[in-house]
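Reminder: ligand-aware prediction takes two inputs, not one.
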Amino acid sequence: MPCPHPLEPIYRTTHGAVYRCRGCRWVNICFGPIILAYDTAGLFRFARLIREMASASGNGPACAERCHYLRTPDRQIGFAFTAEEVRELDALLDGAAAMLDLEKMLEETLGPPARRPGPS
Ligand SMILES: [Zn+2]
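Here is what comes back for the chain with zinc ion:
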């Protein structure tokens, strides 16, 4: 379920957006009619999975069928994507993962945002 708390945007493409909850720090991945909520580690795992699907489907002219299936740990829910959707979702998750990586790197180097020297 998407978070009931205020969300901040992490990354956006023309096809979707990733937000992070200011309350519980979970990320909400909005893509088409789907909203998925994960903790940060979950987002990275999901991004890797979609990256593998995107690599497997290749860059060639793909059929427009929803023939790329993704099982989820919840047996009641699965996804069927077109090759194009897999590439779009991959781009969205790749961007969001990069932003989270960058943020982590900045925090390790400069400390938490509150303690960073401001612009002078
Ligand atoms: Zn939340």
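Residues 3, 5, 21, 23-24, 26 surround zinc ion (CB under 6 Å). The chain is about 40% helix and 25% strand. We will return to this case in the review session.
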